[in-house]
Amino acid sequence: MKIAILGLGTVGSGVMNLLTQNREIIEERTNQTFEVSHVYGRSNRYQIDLTNIVHTDNIEDIIQSDVDIVIEVLGGIDFTYQTIKKLLLAGKHVVTANKDMLAIHVEELSRIANENQVQFNYEASVAGGIPVILGLQHGLNANRIHRFMGILNGTTNYILTRMTQDDWDFNQALEQAQQLGYAESDPTNDIGGFDAQRKTAILSRLAYRQEIDLEEVSVKGIEELQLKDIQIAQQLGYTMKLIGLSEMQDNRIEMLVGPMLIPSDSQLASVNEAMNAVFFNGDAIGETMCYGPGAGSMETASAIVADMMGIMNFGFIGNTETKESALTTSETFPRKYYVRLLATTEIKQMVENNQYDIVYSKDNDIAIQTPIMSLSELLDSVSTESIQALYPIID
Q: First vs last Cα of the chain: how many Å apart?
């Protein structure tokens, strides 16, 4: 079986190394031989041995070739989308790790793949080496999924770990994350929550089998998160994490990404450093958790090569398509909230009138924990100009 790899960056080089390192068990477990016959990309900065491999910077060389499976690790959206579309139409199986492109185009590409009876796999697009896509598509397929929530971005989890455990401020933790290679020089995609937003959209589509509009996933980053709120949360028995949360109630779906307070004795609160984890709640399984590395060259390559091996073993088995568009809600489902306010006389009176629990009061700050309520109810009772911090509490 002939394989092409698009891109020889960090992940692409990891894929090449893993294919070389574990060739024997890959061929043994698929009962097939394979060769990497083509590589697309302008550079080879990791000095991968490309002897007897066609190395091209013309994508048509791949599309017109006799390659069976194409592994896409280029990144980007528009060019990659057009390329994958052409590959599927040409009857080639495709494996991708491209969450940015998938969050927008997965519906169309899955349909095209099915029409051409080729497999379109993307396990590595969410949570790196953790098999969450496979788990949803097959392992939990007998369940109605009611909710999932997870830590889907290692960069923000590392930053919040340092702030929580070492009392670092945000900028100090971000700088360390960049020095360790967890954060890019421009970390906006991670700290702004956009990376987790795309992953939440992909998982929501598979969890509910409904078409998801990326723009319907509410997103808030951690750039404005202050250390004092993490410390107050700890005193209340909560830990601050950037969470991707998706929930279905009465055929309505709420999807949001942002800093949230979770019980400090929960399993999710113990997921630290750059690790990822996802909880799924289904009507048959109850609650189950997937945990592991969310990124990394070899970790991501593990998921990509497993996708490739699935195609080698089973060929076309069908790609998940949705039957309807999700009915999303503009109203957040009722829950508790942590709110820190500017402690004016008016605000203190408001807190007393609404009988909110005061959990912190110092200098010009007053923090409250609300009862279960909708966000609109909360905002109707509080002057928005006085809000210094507002985070959902997920018990």
A: 49
| Residue from 92, 199, 220, 241 carrying the catalytic annotation | 199
Alpha carbon distances (Å) from 229 to 17, 253, 297, 358: 44, 29, 34, 14
> Does residue 86 carry a catalytic annotation?
no
Mean pLDDT, contiguous 10-residue spans, the chain (395 residues)? 95 95 97 97 86 95 97 96 98 97 97 98 93 93 95 96 96 94 92 97 96 94 96 96 95 94 96 95 94 90 97 95 81 90 78 79 89 89 87 94
Structure tokens of 149?
A: 């929530």
Answer yes or no: are the C-beta atoms of 116 and 88 closer than 8 Å: yes
pLDDT at residue number 330: 66
Give me the pLDDT at residue 13, please.
Answer: 94
Q: Taking the CB of residue 13, how many other CB atoms lie within 10 A of it?
A: 21
Return the H-helix or E-strand segment holding 212.
Answer: none
Domains, the chain, in order of start with CATH, read 2-121+298-314 (3.40.50.720), 143-292 (3.30.360.10), 336-393 (3.30.70.1150)
* C-alpha span between 246 and 330 (Å, rounded): 13
CA distance 77 to 32: 33
